[in-house]
Amino acid sequence: xxxxxxxxxxxxVFGQDPPLTYTKILTVDTLSKNHIFDRTLIWCxxxxxxxxSAINVKERESGILAGKAYYQSFYKxxxxxxxxxxxxxxxxxxxxxxxxxxxxLRFSLSNxxxxxxxxxxxxxxxxNAPYEAWxxxxxxxxxEWKYSKEYLIKNLDNLMGSLLSDIIAKKPDW
Length: 174
Prior knowledge:
Layout: H1 2-14, E1 22-27, H2 33-47, E2 54-59, E3 64-76, E4 87-101, E5 104-116, E6 119-122, H3 138-168
Antiparallel strand pairs: 1-5, 2-3, 3-4, 4-5, 5-6
Helix pairs in contact: 2-3
C-alpha cells in the first residue's frame, strides 16, 4: 500500500505548471557594494511607491533588500484591420529580493499573483489564463494571456533598466 501512495504522488506534483519567476543580474564593475546598496535603496523607494508595496528587509552588511510590490503592467492589443489598438493594464503583486555584491546585483521575483476581479491568482507558465474569461473565445483569451505575460517580462526588463540607470547615474554635487 505504501508503494502505491508513493507512485501516485510524483504524478500529482509534476502535473502542475510551475510558477512564473523572473531573475535579472545587473553588473556595475566599477562600483562598491555600499554604493550599489544606497542607490538601489533609493530606487526601490521610487519604483515601488504604491501604498500596497513595502521594503521589508534592509541589510546593508549582507547586501540584501527585499519586500512586496504592487506593479501595474500594461500590454497592447495587436492592431486589427480598420481598428485601433488598445492598451490593457494588469495588476500584479509579487515578492522581490535584491542581493548585492561588489560590482553586481541580482533581482529576483517570486510568488507572482495576478489581481483580477478582487481575486488573486498565482501566475504560472501555463498557456491558459488562471481565470475564466467570460464572453471571450478560448483562442483569444489564450492570446491575450500570452501578451499579458510577454509584456510583463518586457516591463520588468524596463524596470531593471531604470535600476541600472539610477545606480550608474552621476549625481550632481549640491
